[in-house]
What we know:
Elements: E1 7-11, H1 16-25, E2 31-36, H2 39-53, E3 56-61, H3 70-81, E4 87-90, H4 98-103, H5 105-133, E5 137-141, H6 154-174, E6 180-186, H7 206-218, E7 223-226, H8 229-238, H9 242-245
Parallel strand pairs: 1-2, 1-4, 2-3, 4-5, 5-6, 6-7
Helix pairs in contact: 1-7, 3-5, 5-6
Amino acid sequence: MKKPPKTILILGATSSIAQATARHFASRESHFFLVGRNESKLQVIAADLEQRTQCKAESHAIELDDTSTHADLVEIAVKALGPKIDLTLIAYGTLPDQIKTQEDPQATLDSLKVNFTSPASLLTHLAVHYQEQKSGTIAVITSVAADRGRKTLYTYCSAKAGLSAFTDGLRGRLVSSKVQVLNIKPGVVDTPMTAHLKKGLLASTPTKVAEDIAKAIRKKKDILYTPGRWWWIMFIIRHFPEKIFKKLSI
């Protein structure tokens, strides 16, 4: 069985899935570097992890969509956790108002920045470190929405499709360096980001997603649909004839 990661960098550490994943991996040997925009919330999460498991948890508040800070951020994280980072989890993003993005080009660009170009920038900086390190895991939360553009959500779908393709390509670049690059594709998860959406029987929980992420890392998987039923759902959606699919309100 693959040993659990000890040094863990989480970008977007205040998200529900990130918190559940951190709790899953936390142990006395763990050292976390938690990054997000809300300093007080980060401190609460760090303190909770330390109290639960006696691990070490540091936090760093920053606007992750500000790409000009990424080089320094990665350097700070490496110094805090280094010289080896066992696991990096990129777990941030927003669900935009599709109608607003249709009417406001700037809203579209803002969504693309936070959901695609910003994580792609971080991955580019991180890849250099991992390539030199020649081990470890980079895990990126994309979405099942990446699999096909839907008229009710195409701004978000397109950003996640870009990030998904970027993550898959990065895997090929780093395979010779023995670095696992995991593309995590959750379906609907009951989190604050989806609080305004109606939840059906297909909705999952952050805890379930975290368990699946841990299992996928242990098994050295490349792509994870979580829960697993979403592989079949998206297989069907991807293969709908376009003349039918474009008329569906999904």
